[in-house]
Amino acid sequence: MCVLSRSLDARGSPEVSYFCATTSLFLPPPSSSSSSFSSFSSLAVKLVGSMALSGGHKDRELRVHESLDELSTDLADYIAELSEASVKERGVFAIALSGGSLIGLMGKLCEAPYNKTVDWAKWYIFWADERVVAKNHADSNYKLAKDRLLSKVPIIPSHVHSINDTVSAEEAADDYEFVIRQLVKSRVISVSDISDCPKFDLILLGMGPDGHVASLFPNHSALEEKDEWVTFITDSPKPPPERITFTLPVINSASNVAIVATGDSKAEAVHLAVDDVGSDSPSVPAGVAQPLKGKLVWFLDKAAASKLEGSQFSA
Ligand SMILES: O=C1O[C@H](COP(=O)(O)O)[C@@H](O)[C@H](O)[C@H]1O
């Protein structure tokens, strides 16, 4: 595995270094020609970035994987490590899931060694977004997670906080925020020290080809919501139309956020979200998901990373 690090030098200029763990050698940075990266492109590549932004903080890591199998193993390791650290520090692990392809990629958590080593009884499960449908509906993010993950590990049923599926989208969002507020009061969920928002130990996000994360879609007013923790939409461009979603302030108050994106169809959105595309504001919602005091990790396969600047990750 190779690690590409970006940091700031003493004068504040970006500095890039490359470390190839398989040979334990530090290598000089490749030249800008993409062929210089060819020896890297067949390996799992991690790009670690930690840089100061104007008035802000940015702690971001990109992990680009050779295969979905490798990505799934790395994702399971990452979640298991955060769970262990959080249980050690706080006694619980408050994790928010999304729907979509992410859930299948978490499947290794149900297998050895994770099924035995993870302290499942300490997990509290939430959803960063949910479709407002019955819990047994094929579109339900809860159903997807229950069928593929939660029913296969010893999670305590009362720790699983799904939405109220018997009310309108607006009421479901209000109810869900109320539940989260109670659990912040009892410190099952931490509170952010920079906002009044909940501080989830981990928020796991998928990303659509349009760059949406949770149910925050491009150019949608829900992206601007600053006061609510959970909001609702009734006009999702991707069916079903009615959804509830964590707002950006909640996502960006988490201790850890991971965005998982695979396949060619996501490559353009990954590029727009991750690369500095020369505009003042990122053009896709995934580009504004960045915890203010926490850490963001992108889990990508080579296809999803293929349009990143430098195209060193071309599939
Ligand atoms: O509708 C949704 O889509 C996104 C992305 O799904 P994917 O199948 O393209 O990975 C998902 O993260 C979100 O939770 C879900 O509601």
From TrEMBL:
Per the UniProt entry, the Enzyme Commission number(s) are 3.1.1.31
Can you cite an annotated GO cellular component?
cytoplasm
Task: Give one GO molecular function term.
Answer: 6-phosphogluconolactonase activity
Q: Which InterPro entries does the record associate with it?
A: 6-phosphogluconolactonase_DevB (IPR005900), 6PGL (IPR039104), Glc/Gal-6P_isomerase (IPR006148), NagB/RpiA_transferase-like (IPR037171)
The alphabetized list of GO BP terms reads:
carbohydrate metabolic process; pentose-phosphate shunt
Q: Which residues form the Glucosamine/galactosamine-6-phosphate isomerase domain?
A: 68-298
Please name the top-level EC class of this enzyme. Answer: hydrolase
Q: Which UniProt keywords apply?
A: Hydrolase
Catalytic reaction equation(s)? 6-phospho-D-glucono-1,5-lactone + H2O = 6-phospho-D-gluconate + H(+)
Task: Supply the NCBIfam families for this chain.
Answer: pgl
What family is this?
A: Belongs to the glucosamine/galactosamine-6-phosphate isomerase family. 6-phosphogluconolactonase subfamily.
The molecule here is called Probable 6-phosphogluconolactonase
